[in-house]
User: Fold these one by one.
Assistant:
Number 1:
Amino acid sequence: MNIRVEATRFDSLKTPFAVFPLTEEATSAIKLGKKTTLAPITKRVKACDFKGETGDTTLLYDPTPGMGRLLLVGLGKEKELTIEKYRRAGNTGVHHAKRARVQSLHVVAQPYAKVSEQEAAVALAEGLLLGGYDFDRYKTEEKEKRKPVKDATLVLGLLSTKIRDAVARAVIVCSNTLYVRDLMNESTSKMSTLDIAREAVRIGKKPLVRCKVYDEKALKKLKCNLLLGVGAGSKFPARMIVLDYVGNPGSKDTIALVGKGITFDSGGLNLKPTGYLETMRMDKGGAMTVLATIKCLAELKAKVNVVGVMGMAENMIGPGAQKPGDVVIGYAGKSVEIGNTDAEGRLVLGDCLAFVEKQYKPKAIVDLATLTGAVLVVLSEYGAGLVSTDDKLANALETAGTATGERVWRLPLYEEFLDDVKSDIADVRNVGHPKGYGGTVTAAAFLRKFVGETPWAHLDIAGTAWAEKPRHYIQRGATGYGVRLLVEWLTR
Ligand code: BES
Ligand code: MN
Ligand code: ZN
């Protein structure tokens, strides 16, 4: 979808379809005849049942002769107004347009209360772009009915370079969110460890980005045996991909992002049952978010240094597959008892975390992983679990989460969780409490063993990376969660 911005007088709009976000207060002012600035719709709003409650919609035909269809979208009470409501309003607009088979629409970026015209424009653009997504590349029938919205024009009272830049930035960030959705929704047959390495090499050709792919031989030399062990049952070899973005060459400081990249998680010999296998191509969500975030920073020409490390493997059953009870020594030199081959993410991350800390000495490390089913028990699909050794880092991520609507919720890192991952025969074991208690936090405790003094935060995105149930601007399937969050945190 192309997004444009335009300074147009609302009453001069001539469009096949326009969207107008309206609060309850503004609606009632119009109804009481107190608000005359919206002359073209005043009369019609007065006459209709629309009250401006959150999510309310009504469609007006030609409120002024020749104007076209005007969709009013309720934003609720001004006191309760949030930027997220504008995102949802943008999504509502794009869905109504699609249903009306309209491929070009105008959206009025109307500021209210504490939401500025710029914030309104950016949030509406986000709602349009994210809400307009449809993974339809395999739909060959009824193409006519699935026509996407092609052009959206944001209509503002006054247009500044600042607003233009902010919208252009949102377009880049959202396109990278959709890029993650595509990578994760796609069939595994097209998204092997090797396919993704190729994709990373392509991104590595962008200015200021460098890509390095570690193959089996290189990984063996580095003693990344935890990563290799997870991939040992697959016909696709494990890879560690490093994408290094140097947007601020004057500084030596860098931030590290680490992503779990399991192209398919069958569980390994601790095989997952039917009902749990079907969506496990999403288990590379952390790595795909890291990949897209580096790509996004490069496209934004952000003045930051960020190194992204992706641990790629396919967790399968095969003659070479690792087995429960095995002991493996990885990059960090710690011995790990494999208690369960389905707790593979923490193994992959163990090597990647230790590697990036030692090789890059980053100022902070943030890892993202679809790590535990337990985080779904805590936060459902609506928030990511955050575990951190550093309050400042955790707070910064929480702030970025609130700003973007990609929420995080901090969980503790008690000493007892570290006791739970102790092993009788090795330094550490990849499963925690014998009854499976504290699945998310014991997984985090395992990761903790592979990071030294560097401020570290872990985001468990097993719930947020994939939607079983569509909501607002998120369709069923991959959500692209994390790109907007990380870019916000890294660039503000
Ligand atoms: N990839 C899964 C976690 C997951 C579950 C992601 C559901 C998305 C939806 C992970 O590798 C896993 O299998 N975790 C196990 C760990 C257990 C064996 C200790 C889990 O959470 O059950
Ligand atoms: Mn697993
Ligand atoms: Zn997994």
Number 2:
Amino acid sequence: MTDTATITHDEQLLIGGAWREAASGRRFDVTDPATGEVVGSVADADRDDVSAAIDAASAAFPAWAATPARERGRLLRRAADLMRERSAAIAAVMTAEQGMPLAEAAGEVEYAAGFLEWFGGEAERIYGQVVPPSNADKRVLVLRQPVGVTAAITPWNFPAAMLTRKLGPALAAGCTSVVKPAEATPLTAVEVCRALIDAGAPAGVVNLVTSSRPAEVGDVLMSDARVRKLSFTGSTEVGKELIRKSADQVMRLSLELGGHAPAIVFDDADLDDAVTQVMASKFRNAGQTCVCANRIYVQRGIHDAFRAAMAERVAALRVGAGTEPGVQIGPLIDDAAVTKVRRHVEDAIERGAELVVGGEPANGDRPSGGHFVTPTLLDGVTADMLLSHEETFGPVAGLTVFDTEDEAIAMANDTPFGLAAYLLTRDYARMLRVAERLEFGIVGANDGAPSVPSAPFGGVKQSGFGREGGDFGIDEYLSVKYVSIGGVAS
Ligand code: ADP
């Protein structure tokens, strides 16, 4: 067992290829959510540092855009290899600041490296077009070119992958980037940037501004005409604010905002597999993912068996510090997260839900500074409960019974969010029919973990727009230009 309190990491900003302190000299601490103890500190950027980072990204852009795609791709694949070689060390940093179990953190490193690798390949496939002429005298060439300097603002729940799925396509496309990670998880972001630098990223191609002042950093990024695109993953509230601010520079955006995923379990589902997939979706990262099943609709015929099997699996989940062997549910990120989850559980019980497993306060004999929540299963969840319309972001599963396919689809779609949805069935016609009718960007059909670098992750409705991953992912970082050539026939 590693004692995370003994690990300390003191890191700096990365601007123009140099690691350096903030101009103000300020720093801020990073704490372990399992203990509340300080595990490191980082430089605290303010507007001057962000402007310097944009200067560096802007200066680096022409040469990087002109670097052959094959070379850009190789660099990304080298960085992916370095992340894999350093997996144990990066996972330890991630667990120390984010709380997820070490094994899950190692999985996250692999997932994150996968985006660099995937987009490393895509760099060489940024094809244009030659359009058949509508006039014998003309030819039209369509070019796809890097948009320019890009910015990335990322959350704390997947501190490596949320960064690489922005940096991978940006760098593959020939863009340079200024990255601002979440305040809670800046150390993992340092590790990702270090892998890129060690893989040979030229000065200024990637710049990292850790900061405890997100709104100030955001304002500088959004008001600088040199920044041509922002990719943001985070809350719907901040996303809407960034949409408003993007108007000033008419900045391109991709936004991955909140989710409120339904999982629909049909009578004909394979019971064991359905439970496994719903558990995977619901309890991954202690329920702190935007694709976590937040509403579980169970058809009447399978309800009792499904509930019994879920109860057994939820009760068996091991809660603890992510550094303890065998732990499946780490701490939540902070106190506010614990309060929100407890409010959801209390509200559901007050409104008539049945507490099947868990529910009690969770610290037990764990460190008093830790943000732990007991995995909880509720039944009889109804549409009026907070659980049914707010993202819980914690290890709480709520079941709702339904009778018909139409009823389940109507309930599933009855949300302003549209990121991920799940359905569990062995009937392939139903699978297709329901998948087509679900108003979400991602559908996991008998699949509780649908995210992979090669697929276009993203949402509809208030879950945002733009796609990350797959060949769609690189389009976000490219501008289309056509060149019309006249006088060809003469
Ligand atoms: P979460 O609920 O996941 O913490 P946030 O939207 O608050 O979601 O945070 C996601 C990212 O957005 C973090 O990097 C955070 O620092 C950043 N952020 C928060 N507020 C702002 C803002 N006003 N402008 C720009 N970025 C912000």
Number 3:
Amino acid sequence: MFFSKKKAARSADRVLPVHIGIIMDGNGRWAQKRGLPRMAGHRAGAQNFRVITRYCNKIGIKYLTVYAFSTENWSRPKEEVDALMKLFGEYLEEALRDFRDENIRTRFIGDVSAFSDELRALIEETEELSSDKTGLVLNIAMNYGGRAELVSAVKKMAEDKLSPSEISEETVSQYLYTAGQADPDLIIRPSGEYRTSNFLLWQSAYSEYVFMDNILWPDFTTDDLERAIDIYSQRNRRFGGV
Ligand code: IPE
Ligand code: IPE
Ligand code: MG
């Protein structure tokens, strides 16, 4: 398929992506395989997210965008959505403590106005406390959808009364949640699904996708990340040229 378990040779001239996106998929199936409730998978996934984030910072990745909750995920059973909101709150409280000493700047992309006051306060505090960090920029995509992001950008342009002649690709980029950031070079999706599920639609125009079979997000290791980077490194990016 697109990915093999075989360790790719790590060449000295490998290219490190500036921006990595990860669709953290497969938590439910991970739990199901173990006869556990789906939430056990989400908890394991959240733990793994911390490991992978720290590792990205350590190896010098500049931007990491993780897909944590999509605009479509509200359609899940209420119990799962409620439990996920609670988990996000717990996670943020922990992250506020743990990431304090790490050089990671955390930002949230998506429509956070849909969350509870409590969760929104935590989101704000997390962003504020890490705003002066100079290492990895971590974008957590929560209540994020690529289409919703484009709709919100178009609305903001209309509010700002931009004339058609003022609107270029650069303008659109500046109205997105990721304004000012490099587009993702590499997008990784474990769990064996080969789709974007509405992740970074505009920004991924020239991203390299690595879809990984046989790995569910809670089992995704730093070695798997290294393998994805090796695969990326061997790709020939042409951007429409020759
Ligand atoms: C991804 O894991 C986490 C979220 C979407 C919140 P899933 O919950 O989609 O896990 P699977 O795909 O059902 O295994
Ligand atoms: C994508 O996973 C969203 C996140 C990982 C947060 P989903 O599990 O929601 O995607 P589909 O439903 O399989 O496309
Ligand atoms: Mg899924």
